[in-house]
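Dear support,

I submitted the protein below through the web form. The confirmation email said the job was done, but the results page showed an empty box. After a refresh the structure appeared. I'm attaching both so you can tell me whether what I see now is the final result or a partial one.
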Amino acid sequence: MSDRTFRRLGVVGGGVIGAGVAHLFAQSGHAVTLVDAAQGALDTARANIAGNARMYRMLDKALPDREVVLGNLTFTTDLMALAEADFVIENITENVAAKAEVHAEIDAMVGAEVPVAANTSAIPITRIAGFGAYPERVIGMHFMNPPPVMPMVEIIRGTHSSDTALGAGAALVAQAGKQSILVNDSPGFVTNRVMMLMVNEAMFLVHEGVAGVQEVDRLFKTCFGHKMGPLETADLIGLDTVKLSLDILYDEFNDPKYRPCPLLKRLVYAGQTGRKAGRGFHHY
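What the results page shows now:
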């Protein structure tokens, strides 16, 4: 499937991760339509992509400049624009009801042969595939933040996912210069099933007064060589997304080990959701 060409990609959801996915594929020369219901989200996405493209170009001269990246992008609030796509990636918030609605709309917009990837932190792909009439075309593609920088994409096989759809996803990722690993469906998959436990337990350490934020992160970076500590990682993901992911894992497994830390809940309720808000466990 590596020689497969894609005329136009549809990316649904213009938040931090959706904008990053759109940037990644526009950067690799693909025509991308980024769709979001809110014009303000699209304006923010465009500004962030422009700024990031300039920064990435400064760090790596092999990357295209921002005019090329932006030239490959179309921004719209009209979901009908997906009718031109031959691959669709959905990136909206970790909310099952919202995903059900959006996937039903996508289902009505694109042909049965078009692969549809759900970019989710924890919701099982088989559950998402059940929201449409063609579960065989639905796969999971879990992009790490920021997508243009991270080298790996976790691809998830749902119960009904076809080899054709999975091959198309792997081909697309390879064309963007990234690696992929195929895993089977599970709430949280491999990465977040482990990561969410780690960051949540790190939050409990702070909540219980065992260690401070800086100390927890320094221990992991210094002792284990992590580029970021668990609390820095949580801030980068977005504390609201971490909480939603833990809520889903708790609901799916009915296991108390996934209960969100009270400190996490308090920060989310206060709007202190990490880097995107300027404050989380750290200040930005």
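Response: this is the final, complete result; the empty box was a page-load delay. Strands lie at 9-12, 32-35, 73-76, 87-90, 116-118, 138-143, 152-157, 179-184.
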